[in-house]
Each structure stands twice: as C-alpha cells, then as structure tokens.
Amino acid sequence: MEIRPIRTDVDLTEALREIGRLRGPVGTPEGDKLDVLATLAEAYERTRHPAPERDPVEILHFAIGERGRSQAERAGLLVARSQASEILNRKHPLSLE
Predict the structure, then answer these.
(1) What's the whole-number mean pLDDT along residues 52-60?
(2) Residue of 25, 34, 35, 72 with fewest CB within 10 Å of its CB?
(3) pLDDT value for 75
C-alpha cells in the first residue's frame, strides 16, 4: 500500500488492513510505514469517529460486571473497601490517586 491521506472509511479500512500486516521494528522502512499509517489512522478516527466521553464510575461498574468480580474484590484494587462503595454510589468523588 502506498502511504496517502486517509479521507474516507474505505481508506481507513485499507490502512488498518496494512497496519495488521506490517511487522517491522522501529527505524526500519516497514516499521516507519507502520508508524506513519497508525498516526494517520488515529487522526482520522479521532476527527471522524470521536469516542464519546465516558463516565469513570460507569466504566468501573462495567469492569466489575465484565470480569465477574464482586464489588468487594474490585474495591481492594481501588481504595479502602468502604470508600469503593461510596465511589460506586457517587457519594465520594473518584480521583486519580
């Protein structure tokens, strides 16, 4: 595939197909091509198909259900068990800490 701008979803599909095929390490022609195509694909997706903002607490609820874990099991990974319940029930703010 020749590297060119990604202007349509068809262009994106072709670029993603080529990205999946490439395996070169950084600094090689194939690796450089992979890097450029990935950058172009990411820019196109970000502008044409932006990801909706997600609520962090909703993401936690999803992760708990998806992994089949109890809220108590997940709490140990986040904060103190009592705070986890408060966060998931929106009684305590979620912070990056």
Answers:
(1) 81
(2) 25
(3) 57
